[in-house]
Amino acid sequence: MRRRAGVLPDRADPAGPGAQRDVGEPRRGYDQIVVKAFINLIGIYPVGTCVILDTYEVALVHSANPDVTHVHRPVVRIVTTPEGGVQHPGFLADLAQKDAEGAHPARS
């Protein structure tokens, strides 16, 4: 039986066998158009994500903001007060809306 000479882990090419063909490839990561479409579809914060607002209230993401210019400000259901008191069932707030004083979110 003939024994094969293997490559020791410390001498293996860390980039892998396809590294030479990728050296000249300047593009890395995901296709920007696909990423933008994905974010526009589900939003940066997926539905059901628990978030803590700047006001220290806890909220659950209800839906992505329909206005894609405010994709970073979803529609949420605020479920606690800043002091930690539970609000059942909570209330919906569009984080893109501002109140009269310019604070986010507008209170209804």
Biggest sheet strand order reads 1-2-3-4
Strand content: 15-25%
Low-confidence segments: none
Report the helical percentage.
Answer: 10-25%
Could you give a short account of the major beta sheet?
A: 4 strands, antiparallel
What is the CA-CA span between the terminal residues?
Answer: 81 Å
The overall average pLDDT, rounded, is: 77
Structure description:
This protein is an alpha+beta fold and 108 residues long. The chain has a domain at 47-97. 14% of the residues lie in helices and 22% in strands. It contains 2 helices and 4 strands, in the order ααββββ. It has helices spanning 19-22, 32-42; strands at 50-52, 58-63, 75-80, 86-94. A 4-stranded antiparallel beta sheet has the order 1-2-3-4, with no helix packed on it. It starts with 18 loop residues before the first helix and ends in a 14-residue tail after the last strand. 14% of the residues are buried. The mean pLDDT is 77.
Helix and strand topology:
Layout: H1 19-22, H2 32-42, E1 50-52, E2 58-63, E3 75-80, E4 86-94
